[in-house]
Amino acid sequence: MKGNPAVILLVEDDEAHAMLTMRTLEDEKIANEIHWVVDGEEAVNYLFRRGKYADKGKSPRPDLILLDLRLPKRDGHEVLREIKKSNDLKHIPVVVLTTSESEGDMVKAYSNYVNSYLVKPIDFGEFTEMIRELGFYWLIWNRHP
Asked: What CATH homologous superfamily does 7-72+85-140 map to?
């Protein structure tokens, strides 16, 4: 991240999943800032700096977006489409982090240019390891401009 603090936008409506994800990223010192939103509408408002997110200081551009698919108000597929059609946002890596193993969901996500599609493991230890490795890959090992 070229010495800058890593910022993650976590789009997750399940509080337990969100807390576990944030705790793992914080424990591993992978992200300096994690912003959590609970539905697709709030994610779009954050990313396009609308409403309570109009202040750039409260809505810094994320270095990585972790996106659940099954969200209230706007589903993850719709949020992904909005991100990838925006010239200001399309370069931000988006990782779908979902419980859906549906091939249709995977095809739809990759058709909308998702960068990665991960199915949340049920096992706590496996989930924690996945988040740790995901953070290291996208924010430390992966190179992008």
From this structure: Response regulator (3.40.50.2300)
